[in-house]
Structure formats: C-alpha cells, structure tokens
Task: structure prediction
Amino acid sequence: VYDMLAILDARIKQNQDLEEDDRELIMQLSQIYQQRLELATELGRQEGIVQGKEEGLVEGKQEGLVQGLVQGKEEGLVQGRQNERRSMVTYLLCSRFGELDQELLDIIEPLMALSPEEFIPLLLQLSRLELLARFRERN
Result:
C-alpha cells in the first residue's frame, strides 16, 4: 500500500493535471495508511511486551523451581545427616547406659554438635557421670 501511495504521489508531482478530488483522495489515503501503520506498530509493540512478560514469567518460574529443588535437596541432606547423627548418638547412649533418662536426653543435642570423630570416642570411653559433667559445663 505504501508503495502504491508513493507511486501516486510521484504521478501527482509529474502530472499536475489531476483533479482536486483525486488529490484529496490520495491525501486521505496517505493519512489513513499512516494511521494504520502507527496503530499496527503500537499493537506489535504491546504484543511484544505481553509476550516478553509471559516468557519472563516462565523463565522465572523455571529458575525458581530449579533453585527450590537445589535448596530442598540441600536441606534434605542436612536434615538426613542430623537425623542419622541423632540416631547414632541415641543408639550409643542406649547401648552403654540402657534406657535414657532426662539427663541423658539433655546431652543428645550438645553431642550432635560434635563431629562423629569427636562424639563416638567420648560415648565409648567416658562414664555416665563423666559425660554428664562434661556436657553440663557446656550448657
């Protein structure tokens, strides 16, 4: 359409014999074309913005999901290690001293704060009184 208008405009400039009605029609068509071109450009821009937002949301959700999975896996591993350490400390205390009373239950958390290399020898070598005395000092 724009090419056709350009051709008509060139003919107007070459041939001044066009009637006034033809000149007005060409001017109106040029204005209509320009308005529609601007409208189409604006609509395309708006569609691009909407599409960009949608793609951004999808990418954001995917990144969030990946980060959530990684974080969940890390937290699960930490929780699993803590549960394993708690089970090991509890098992060793029960093996050494039988049923656990409140005093022994109270030293499980401080023992868990130590590495296995630290707490295993303590649980195997120290007496009940020595363990309680040692971990009462820390609390």
Summary: The two ends are 87 Å apart (CA to CA). The chain has one domain: 2-138.
